[in-house]
Prior knowledge:
The protein is mostly helical. It has 3 domains: 6-67, Rubrerythrin, domain 2 (Single Sheet), CATH 2.20.28; 73-266 and 391-403, Citrate Synthase, domain 1 (Orthogonal Bundle); 270-376, CATH 1.10.230.10. The chain has helices at 35-39, 75-81, 84-93, 99-111, 120-124, 132-146, 157-183, 196-205, 216-228, 236-245, 251-262, 270-283, 288-296, 317-333, 338-352, 354-358, 366-376, 383-403, and strands at 2-11, 14-22, 28-30, 59-62, 67-70, 73-74. A hairpin with a 2-residue loop joins strand 5 (67-70) and strand 6. The protein starts with a strand and ends in a 29-residue tail after the last helix. Residues 47, 232, 235-236, 266-268, 270, 295, 303-311, 359, 361, 364-366 line the site of s-citryldethia Coenzyme A (SDX).
Amino acid sequence: MGQExxxxxxxxxxxxxxxxIIGSEGERGIDISKLRSLTNYVTLDHGFGNTSNCESAITxxxxxxxxxxxRGYPIEQLAEYSSFVETAYLxxxxxxxxxxxxxxxxxxxxxxxxxxxxxxRLFNGFPVAAHPMAVLASMICSLSAYYPDIDMTNPSxxxxxxIAVQLMSKVRTMVAFAYKKSIGEPFVYPxxxxxxxxxxxxxxFSSPTKPYKIYDEVVQAMKVLFILHxxxxxxCSTSTVRLVGSSRVNLFASISSGICAxxxxxxxxxxxAVIDMLEAIQKDGGDVDKYINMAKDKSTSYRLxxxxxxxxxxxxxxxxxxxxxxxxxxxxxxxxxxxxxIAIRLEEKVLKDPYFVERNLYPNVDFYSGxxxxxxxxxxxxxxxxxxxxxxxxxxxxxxEMIEVPGGAKIGRPRQIYVGENKRDYVTINKR
Length: 432
Ligand code: SDX
């Protein structure tokens, strides 16, 4: 992108000039690629809160203004008018598909919805109580053993399209099979006559003795959730996919590492942790003040799950849509979930409490999403694998962008500041 005046760094009496990079939305960065060779200094930035690891054209977000756009399109419009498969195409290929392109792309989902029959045996290797994220990370990585991968350095479009759709289509089947395994029901196979979300719902909830009635409002709610989770620039799991992928390992293994990163309760695992928190408050008589005070008490590490964000210092634009979606779905389904009332009371207090206001802590994407999954009948330990389904196109898009860097993306290899022992000689055990 644009480059203009430089940044001057004065070190040990010397002045060094570093280029300034300006993004298409006016974001400014200091390019420190040559800092060490020029100055023999490195930078230190715990959690990379001030450090960009790449230039990307996929997603733009403005944490102060609460803006989120996929390839320039506001998520509010995509959530209202697009489909998850169309949004996935947009993220991966950079443009909205023509009707012919969408038909061809959607058609591949049926071709690649099944998993190799031998992979079914892998599910039997897990204990019934295995967390679905452990199962999913393993199954996604095992795709590299069952399906030929692509030449990482220069994949053909046809090959890349295949593995991208294999991941997006098979992830549904794997999640559904993991759920069926956990409840001791037979696997339900994908159907060619069902679109993306209805197919997933059918595999999750229908059984040989009981067909599942697919309600439009449930499909719509899931579509909105998947679109809103589809990408979020350099979050922990996406940066992980890029870093692992930069070693030129295959896409399946790179995505599997992203699933592991997403699992953490500070990241995608928060949607499950929010329900745990709301259930604890409910069990405690609905005393939200007690939990707010716990979160403010620095002598504990307790935090309100679903609140706060590294980038958003205003209300997460996704949370606004999801909150509305939760209200509408629970009303349409006639679900009276006491946790929703607790969540609303908790949010109201957080938005007024100086501790949270001063730190720009607002509800994030995970605060209300679990209430929707719960109303649909998805068990709590499946919430984060649902997040993984939604995030799949974003991970794929970033991996593609990374391997397409002209001349090949550099392998990710951060530096460190060593703070350990200085040189010391070995002492034999009898002298210690
Ligand atoms: C996701 O990055 C992404 O884009 C992620 C994501 C995506 O789409 O990929 O948006 C999805 O991961 C959303 C976040 C889900 N996680 C949670 O809801 C977990 C609860 N939230 C936090 O733990 C926290 O807010 C983080 C991890 C989300 C962000 O942490 P930061 O940016 O590292 O902030 P911090 O830890 O430096 O906190 C700054 C201050 C601290 O207090 P002080 O030291 O200033 O006194 O805010 C406090 C923190 O103690 N704080 C909280 C809090 N979050 C931050 N205090 C109470 N409750 C919280 N939830």
